[in-house]
UniProtKB/TrEMBL annotation:
Keywords per UniProt: Phosphoprotein, Two-component regulatory system
Record PROSITE patterns: RESPONSE_REGULATORY
Modification 4-aspartylphosphate, positions: 98
Residue ranges annotated for the Response regulatory domain, each copy included: 49-165
InterPro entries according to UniProt: CheY-like_superfamily, Sig_transdc_resp-reg_receiver
Identification of the protein by name: Response regulator
Amino acid sequence: MESHPDQGALFRIDLPLAEVNQADITGPSTDKAEVGAIIGLVEGQNEYRILVVEDQPENQLLLAKLMESVGFSCKVAGNGAEGIALFQTWQPHFIWMDRQMPIMDGLEATKRIRELPGGREVVIVAVTASAFLEQRSELLEAGMNDFVRKPYRFNEIYDCLAKHLGVRYVYEGAPEQTPPIAPLTPDMLAGLPASAREELKNALESLEPERIANAIVLATAQDPQLRKTLAYLADNFDYPAILKALPS
């Protein structure tokens, strides 16, 4: 340390650091927190139904809001028996199952659901206030796929859904994601009028973007999905893919 009256102080410190190897340097972080909160689901995915089986009203409300706020369909049951009834009538894809509930607990409800038609396919994840990880084997033996502990952490809830359902999310501040398009096949263009196919072919061979865009609009007036597919390929200058799919 060096210090001088009316001038301030200078502090120095030596750290015993080793030089890093290039192989140890990680790439840019992909932490979800950097792009903001989850605000929805990427378009083009299945419409998943989520059932919340929970006896505490505040937990029911929290989980239901977390599901609905990003676009899942959600229903709530107050105990295991109600959960079984809703499973049979609504056929959810995923169930949040509380461990301890009156009338019928989550373990018994899970065992019974697994014996019902479609019960082997549904994902069931336990929610428990227990801090004892040794209960994991008890939950899995009852037929549950996984578990999360209370109090709920938003990222754990959404990560669990992504893990078991494969859902993809839209994050606040992230670039807009283009929904996947169906591969273009000759069958998709075979139903177009011959004049429309001919104009589309001539437009593509002219390499004039405006003429190509007009030809796509005219050819797909009755088929918005085909228009999206053709427009996507044209915008990415993949003209050969369209020409290859055009019937001779």
